[in-house]
Amino acid sequence: MTAPTVPPVPPFGRTVCAMVTPFTADGALDLDGAQRLADHLVGEGGCDGLVLSGTTGESPTTSDAEKSALIRAVAEAVGDRARITAGVGSPDTRHTVELARAAEAAGAHGVLVVTPYYNRPPQEDIAEHFLTVADAVGLPVMLYDIPGRTGTRIEPATMLRLAGHPRIAGVKDCAYDLLGSSKVIAQTGLAYYSGCEELNLPLRSVGGTGYVSTVANVAGPLLAAALDAFDRGAHAEALRCHQRVLPLVEAMMAAGLPGTVTAKALLTTLGLPAGPVRAPLRGAGAERVAGLVRAYEGAVGAP
User: Fold this and answer.
1) For the chain, what percent of residues have pLDDT higher than 90?
2) Subcellular location, in the record's words (predicted)?
3) Distance from the CA of 159 to the CA of which of 20, 170, 267, 283 falls in 20 to 30 A?
């Protein structure tokens, strides 16, 4: 069997971590911790890209100034070893443009723009929102389709329209619509990234580029191994890697706590920078942490 052709590495990378934002014990932004964590993730952590200030990065509770400071610190730490994509989404087009321009000035390589949330604009207005942001910066734009959080998805027909913009280059796909995603992949040059770890391998099999993963904060090499095996035609090995990580994915992402909380709990256990979460989120209790550690050890091994 001929191995699938590996696509060229797009501007956002391929094995991308949705990085947590480390805080100090008193809740302040921990830039030194962010640099150390970023260095780990792009070194032994198996990541060639980082998304900062996304959902996992607690973007709703960090200030605009903190977001820019985080980009500058991480860019200094990783240099040209990884692509840095900055989350700049908001339900306000004007504010989103401001965040995108600030991210570009701070040294980001791309921006992640979520569908406007809460106000739930119609598809035509969603398209105009994304086009306005893409017109305002010189960076590649990754669309973030996560209707479970925003209340509105980016319909495939809207994706097809947006794909014509020269700076709209990718999609973080959390829509749970493999048919719709497959159609857009087949008809455009958009780089599709799984935003749901259980779909990393299925999406790659229909032409996806890679993933943007919360679980990669703690299990990046195992997630990358599944894609690497698939791309060299070792499909049985890819499936084993995929199945091996699923209990950890379930424990971190589908057991009632936000991925930010579970990722920070495990990072702390592993002795890596994380710190507390900001309210209204609260940290995981001892029993939940113990369960997370068991799932981690089952997938990756004892720390």
Assistant:
1) 95
2) Cytoplasm
3) 20
